[in-house]
Amino acid sequence: MRIERLQQEYGLQLRWTAFPLHPETPTEGRELAELFAGRETMIRDMQARLLQVAATEGLPLTERSRTYNSRLAQELGKWAEAQGHGNEFNHAVYRAFFVAGVNIALVDELVRIAAAIGLPADEARAVLEERSFAAAVDADWQRATDLRITAVPTHLCEGKRLTGFAAYEDFVRLIGKSL
Asked: Does the domain at residues 2-8+20-174 carry the CATH identifier 3.40.30.10?
């Protein structure tokens, strides 16, 4: 909601960049406890912080114990952008993953998400099967590496960066405005 507010109040243009968050995660997913073995306190603290931020922002979010590979979702997201539905698709994937716990590594689930926002299911499936937008995601991953991005979310504006879930005021400062 902060980003939408910034777009509305300041005419901010948003550019989504895919990030390789745990790209080694298998299609069937991985337990967070396994991924962060030995750092259970960190997982609890991270979940609590995310739930608090989501509640403050009015975002739906449920506690989860499993993560899934997001590579195909990123590829379909690039296609959705090309269709003029990038933000809508990214929000739908967010809801599917963070609210419903959907495995966003599965082609059938991604096609269902695309169709639910009005994108043609047959085209979405073809994009995923042909990996038509793999190069676009590869370019984003390289851009993230070049910019030394190591965490999500990271927001960039004119050489400045803001990492993590920050307050609206922090975003306003990032874009060089005052309240």
From this structure: yes
User: Which pLDDT band, with edges at 50, 70 and 90, does 66 fall under?
Assistant: confident
What is the number of alpha carbons within 13 Å of residue 20 lying toward its C-beta? Answer: 15
Please check whether residue 82 is in contact with residue 121, taking contact to mean a CB–CB distance below 8 angstroms: no
- Judge contact between 107 and 125, C-beta under 8 A: yes
Other beta carbons within 10 angstroms of residue 140's beta carbon come to 20
Phi, psi of 162 (to 5 degrees): -135, 120
Q: Is residue 86 within 8 Å of 80, Cβ to Cβ? A: yes
Rank 20-29, 74-83, 88-97 by mean pLDDT and report only the highest. Answer: 74-83
**pTM score of the predicted model:** 0.85
Separation in Å, CA 100 to CA 6, 109, 155: 27, 12, 26
CB burial of residue 64 (10 Å; 0-12, 13-18, 19+): middle
The tens digit of pLDDT for each residue in 118-155 reads 999 999 999 999 999 999 999 999 999 999 998 888 88
Q: How many Cα neighbours within 13 Å face the side chain of 155? A: 19
